[in-house]
Amino acid sequence: MNTYVALLYSIVLGKGRRVVMSDLRGMAERLGHRSPRTLVATGNLLFDTGKATVGDLELALETAFAETFGRHVDIIVRPGADWQRLAVANPFQAEGEEDGARVHVRVMREPLPATVPADFDRYCTAGERLAVVDGDLWVHFTGQASESKLLGALTKKRLGVGTFRNWNTVKGLAAMLGT
Length: 179
What we know:
Elements: E1 2-8, E2 12-14, E3 17-18, H1 21-30, E4 34-38, E5 44-49, H2 54-69, E6 75-79, H3 80-88, H4 93-98, E7 103-108, H5 116-119, E8 129-133, E9 136-140, H6 149-153, H7 156-159, E10 162-166, H8 167-177
Antiparallel strand pairs: 1-5, 1-6, 2-3, 4-5, 7-9, 7-10, 8-9
Helix pairs in contact: 3-8
């Protein structure tokens, strides 16, 4: 058995409707995954399964999600060992330990080139810093991420399929995997 982390892009199904984590775990069980568990109610799922490709897991989860909840959601899957490497590679670790809500990573389906940060310099009006590590985009926000002009510029259209998680969530998922 291998452990995987699955990150849902958005779990808002429509006005006032969210995905209940027990329903998400049930969906994973129906796919044959073992020991599904979630971290907070924001679309973070861990599960164990036999050897499979990440692409096959993403497709199966996205299809099952649409069938179960009536809406397509992008789902990014990472093997547990890859998630542990992602957590260790945080280039803003000190800042994250100071305030985990100000350091985010956009976990990407397809790796980003290292040149991406320069493409967004003009949106870093409050001192935000960016770094691409192993194809994922790390961002240190100096204030509230939701108030940054940068956040609105980091879209699927510009970057491709990906989803943000803050440092607290990254560490929480790593702890659930065991270190």
